[in-house]
Amino acid sequence: MFETLPQLICENYKNHPENQIQLSKNKKGVFVPVTYKEFYTDMTNFAAGLYSLGECPHSNIGLISDDRKEWLVSSLAILSLQSADIPRGSEATEKDLQYILSFAECKTIIIDAAYNLKKILQNIDSLPQIKNIILIVQNDSTEELLKNFNNEQNINFFYYEEILVKGQQVLLQNPNLISDFIYSAKKTDTATIIFTSGTTGTPKGVELTHENFICQLDSLSEQLQFKPGHKCLCVLPVWHVYQRFFEYLLIYNLAVLTYSKPVGAIILSDFKAVNPQYICCVPRIWESIYTHMIKTLGKQGKISSMLFNFVKWSAISIKRLLDEINCQTTKITEESFLYKGVKNLFYIPVVCLSPFSSLGNKIFFSKMKSVLGDNFKIGVSGGGALPLYLDRFFSAVGIKVVEAYGLTETAPMCCIRNIKKPVMGTIGPVLPYAQSKIVSLEGKECSIGEKGVLYIKGPNVMKGYYKRPDLTAQVIDKDGFFNTGDLVIKTIHGDIMIKGRSKDTIVLSSGENVEPLPIENKLAESPYISLAVVVGQDENSLGVLILPDFDQIKKFAESKGITPDFPHIFTHPEVRFLYQKEIENLINAKTGFKNFEKISKFTFLEKPFEVGKELSPKQGIIRYKINEIYQDKIKEMFV
Questions:
Q1: Nearest residue to 220 via CA among 253, 254, 187, 255
Q2: What is the 3-state secondary structure (H, E, C) of 181-204?
Q3: CA-to-CA distance for 347 and 339, rounded, in angstroms?
Q4: HSE (CB half, 13 Å, CA atoms) of 319?
């Protein structure tokens, strides 16, 4: 049995050398497989090559790259040396890289391409500890950068292939060098230090061990039912722990990592090309997939559009009724004996609506589902709340998407929705390897149905924040429970509902505390709203920054004879009235919101958010940055 991640690779290599581990595109855009035999050879050669540069156990080695087959080779080669990788992607700023690589004392950095190399070279004076830079990609851009670089620090530059050759030569002299390192490693050794992008400023280095990852593999494999040879599209930044863990999970199950890009058109093209069984991604990508599904229906006339909306409503209504019948709900109290009997009457509308749902599948839904290829089985959504309208639609039409929850500090998985008996609006129960407690803001442990902060304890919880015991002590209590910072409620069946972030709470001047996330998720149900950010700290009411759906508002404008002149169109009275009504219809007492949660003011944003600015790498909104970037708009809104 393996104790470390490189040992897992070794086990798969010994038992299944010809099985595929990766599929990646060559220069012609054709997917090419890599077997475990090929991967193991590259991994050990690269590890030996790093050793020849002076790297040894307990080193920290920078790995600045987006997801690609060489990333996994490089990372597991680093781990094979009993060292830790320090990963970031192309979205990292020069300031972040300078801080992270210095703080982690990296002497060697592996970089994927010229874009990231340029960031390092422009700040090399502030990185005096750097001795070696290894470039994965060799092309005219990298050659030009190196040619014009004034190498006053005498840094050694190598290309990826050169390190493989160096390692091959080392192993000719000492064949057991790397395998000895691999099998003498311990599960408690640090595997990676992931510096979170942070929503409050300076990145913190989350120190994760091999055990943090490995302890989760059995439980998640049972939940997601991977099989050898199944393919999973890899689209997220691999330096982020969510994608990284899923790649380990795929390897554990002998499934195939299939590299794509987080771009809607590329993802959909790759679905057709390789027909994967799985994809793990974030809510924004699911929104993009849903939008494309709608587009596959073509331009609809009024009657066709009405029919689609009706059959969609029928399918969703059937699913909600069946969930009620089967106790797949977010109830916080036991059902009465009388209600259990009354529920059987729900079968009547189910039977009545079923023909319309079947019609919808024949005319619309089957065409929409074809976007995901012929073999699609399960999608996993994490890194943020999946909007309820998407959740319900996918479930109703037979597309299995399970919502997962976790944090970098928990490596990452804490909860995942039960695939056999999913409950909409929840992230499922806490996984069996972890313990949990929910604590109120007053410090008392919560009962079922009471809102409080979720705490997690278990072998998946980090060692701590690298070289910051003070910060570690702030989030891990004396009993070993980690404070997630997420406000949750537990249902009567043990499922967890996310209700917001304790640190995201907006406090109005009246003293009322408001969680922005449920309001933002509800507003996102509007076809005219691409994204909403609720603001209003210390104000007497809430406001919202709206990123419009430009395609939908253009259609609306044309139907009203309004010239779709962006951004001036958003000052037009009819357009502002449209958004006012959308907000009022979505956020009100009937939809479950309190009076102080109503939106009294709104303003429009003119361009989509960008990763590294308003968005984190997992495409979650960074509130403090949004408050900084749009402070003038926010002030103007509340004048």
A1: 253
A2: HHHHCCCCCEEEEEECCCCCCCCC
A3: 14
A4: 23
Residue 602 structure tokens = 């709104």
Residue 638 has pLDDT above 60, yes or no: yes
Tell me the sheet residues that pair with 599. 542
Contact 525, 389 (CB under 8 A): yes
Whole-structure pTM value: 0.85
Run of H or E including 452: strand 452-457
3-state secondary structure of 450: coil
Strands 401-406 and 413-416: antiparallel
- Identify the burial level of 148 via C-beta atoms within 10 angstroms of its C-beta, where 0-12 means exposed, 13-18 middle and 19 or more buried: exposed
Instruction: Answer yes or no: are the C-beta atoms of 600 and 615 closer than 8 Å.
Output: no
Query: What is the C-alpha separation between 55 and 177, in angstroms, rounded?
Result: 13
Measured CA to CA, the distance from residue 413 to residue 379 in angstroms comes to 15
Q: Is the pLDDT of residue 202 over 90?
A: no
Is 477 in contact with 469 (CB distance < 8 Å)?
no
Rounded to 5 degrees, what angle do the CA atoms 29, 32, 35 make?
160
Q: Is the peptide bond before 422 cis (omega within 30 degrees of 0)?
A: no
Q: How far apart are CA 64 and CA 71, in angstroms?
A: 9
Q: Phi and psi (nearest 5°) for 467?
A: 60, 20
Cis peptide before 412 (omega within 30 of 0): yes
pLDDT digits (tens, 9 = 90+) for 211-255: 999 999 999 999 999 999 999 999 999 998 999 999 999 999 999
pLDDT for 578 equals 95
Mean pLDDT of the chain: 93
**CA dist., res. 573 & res. 492, Å (int):** 47
Taking a C-beta distance cutoff of 8 angstroms, is the pair 384, 619 a contact?
yes
Q: Vertex 462, ends 456 and 468: CA angle to 5°?
A: 115
Query: What is the distance, to the nearest Å, from the Cα of residue 443 to the centroid of all Cα atoms in its chain?
Result: 30
The pLDDT value recorded for residue 74 is: 98
Q: Look at the block and give the residue holding tokens 């160096």.
A: 166
Q: Which of 536, 575, 571 is nearest to 552 (CA)?
A: 575
For residues 281 and 271, the answer to whether their CB atoms sit within 8 Å is: no
Angle at 255 (CA atoms; ends 206, 380), nearest 5 degrees: 60
pLDDT in the model for residue 200 = 44
> Nearest 5°: phi and psi at 283?
-55, -35
| Stretch among 52-61, 311-320, 616-625 having the lowest mean pLDDT | 616-625
First to last CA, the chain: 65
Can you tell me the mean pLDDT for 409-420? 95
Residue 510 has pLDDT above 80, yes or no: no
pLDDT band at 197 (very low <50, low <70, confident <90, very high): low
Q: What's the chain's Rg over C-alpha atoms?
A: 26
Q: Which residues lie closer than 8 Å to 527 by C-beta, 6 or more apart?
A: 549, 552
Confidence (pLDDT) at 212:
98
- Within 189-334, residue ranges assigned H as helices are 210-214, 217-224, 241-252, 264-274, 283-296, 302-325
Q: What tokens does 140 get?
A: 């005219």
Q: CA 220, CA 227: separation in Å to the nearest integer? A: 13
* Mean of pLDDT values over 506-521: 80
Look at the block and give the residue holding tokens 């950010």. 533
